[in-house]
Amino acid sequence: MIIIKAFDRFAGVIGPLAIREGGVAMTSAHGAGRSRLWGALAAVAGAALVVAAAPGRPVGSDASRLAAEGAEAAVTLLVNRALDEGRDGPAVRCAVEEAFQAGLCDGWRQQRVLATAWGAGSVLGGSAPTVALPTDADGPLEIALADPGRLTDVTVHDRHGRYVGGGSDPLGRRWTNTEPLRAGEEYTVRVGAQDAAGTPVGVTMAFRTAPPKEDGRLTVEFGPKDGTYGAGQIVTATLSRPVPADDRLSRARVEQALQVTSEPAVEGAWHWVDDSTLHYRPRVFWPAHAVVHVRSGLDGVEIGDHAYGGPSDGLDLTIGDRIEAVTDSAAHEMTVRRNGRVIRTIPVTTGKAGFRTRTGVKVVLGKELEVRMRGDSVGIKRGTSEFYDMPVRYATRVTWSGEYVHAAPWSVEAQGEENVSHGCTGMSTADAAWFFATVREGDVVEVVNSGGERMTPFGNGFGDWNLDWRAWRAGSALAARQAPSAPAAVVHAASRLRPLA
Predict the structure, then answer these.
(1) Residues 53 and 169 occupy one common structural domain
(2) 104: left (phi over 0), alpha (psi -120 to 50) or beta
(3) Which of 268, 270, 266, 235 is nearest to 253 (CA)?
(4) Segments in 30-166 forming alpha helices (H)
(5) Residues 123-181: tens digit of each pLDDT
(6) What pTM did the predictor assign?
């Protein structure tokens, strides 16, 4: 049994959610690097979860009943949340585990679901729905095992690909977030575990945090985290409340206040992805070893009708070597360049007919030393000739729906000769290990001549580079054309408002 706790200060009933299967593998544990737990676990807060087991399976059944019937492995998930009933006492007490176990939390609601062997490979696609429950973001998210076994994979990320950091106890029985959730955001939670017999089980969950209070000041959360990234890394800005597209003046004021500077200076612009999300990119990829600073000047700025901006934390990035990996599916070959110089040519295989690899520019989202890939996670029925279920090593992720560059020792004879995969880019184990060690998050991975669908700009990773510069600038609320100036550092937002085109 796995217990998943989240603290919700608003009333409402969680119902089951049918999540579309849209990927290839369950991601690995992420973000355990922070040593300080965010907030005290005794604080009132959290996130209500919507949970889905594998499609077509009994969501409300008990693991013990399935085991007695001789079914495949399963563990029960208990999703607990506290309701705001107009008093702070019960919610505060229920943030302590002992109080819940002692039955002192009369304001809680509980939902039972299953994590199953069928769900161990499930992935949530970018367009899957969530339930808009008013869930308070100000609290811990805790995932714990109640039965013998161990947690093997826990990832939490929002719709923009930003992970929520978390840490596990030494025995791998409890995971807690070390970073706060964001208000007005959609999250995907993937939990993988092993039961007492070592059988992998898993489930995918989705939830949405409530928007901030209307009287709150407009703030911004920048992404990714501070650190070193590849030349294709996109800067994201998530606003604490939406700014509608028809409010062009407010959008222009917001965009003007979001300042990006770089050394050396490059031309760049913000693009409104939706009412509360902006992405920033240069006209071309970041120069190698550039230093990028992102700051908000919203504090005290009037946004809309008597609404004002508030303070926000900045972001500092360093760009590493400019790594670009271009796969020509027709030639069955990947060419990897570092700072413009070819450093390796790799024979590969890409998607065959019916499973063509997406064409276009993608960006490395993360690296997983080993993942389990299953055909039913992309709609391939068990028992058919195309079905597969196998562990895969040196997996470099480029889309949220499950496209990877990875080791494929089973197709070595086809590599460099023909395309036989189900959409991923496969190569030898030695080449995959080298690629895994060479690239970092934000590096550029492009596919040409595959015959597949075009990589979408948003929603399935960072496909932003597939928009030409004119189309990218059309998504900006500022009509002013930007040009790099003489200083080494330049602000990548117009210095003043100008008439919109």
Answers:
(1) yes
(2) alpha
(3) 270
(4) 63-68, 89-94, 97-101
(5) 333 333 444 334 455 556 777 776 777 888 888 888 777 788 888 788 877 777 777 66
(6) 0.62
In the chain, which stretches have pLDDT less than 70? 1-72, 74-116, 118-140, 146, 180-184, 209-215, 305-306, 376-379, 479-501
**Two structure tokens written together for 165:** 């950091």
Q: Are residues 77 and 123 both part of a single domain?
A: yes
Known catalytic residues are 406, 424
| pLDDT at 204 (0 to 100) | 79
Domain match, 35 and 149 both? yes
Of 180, 208, 236, which residue sits at a domain end?
Answer: 208
As a whole number of Å, the CA-based R_g of the chain is: 23
How many domains does the chain contain in total? 3
Structure tokens at 113: 């679901």
**Residue 68 · residue 33 · CB < 8 Å:** no
Q: What is the CATH number of the domain that holds 438?
A: 2.40.440.10
Contact partners, residue 240, CB within 8 Å, separation at least 6: 183, 184, 212, 216, 217, 218, 219, 220, 221, 276, 310
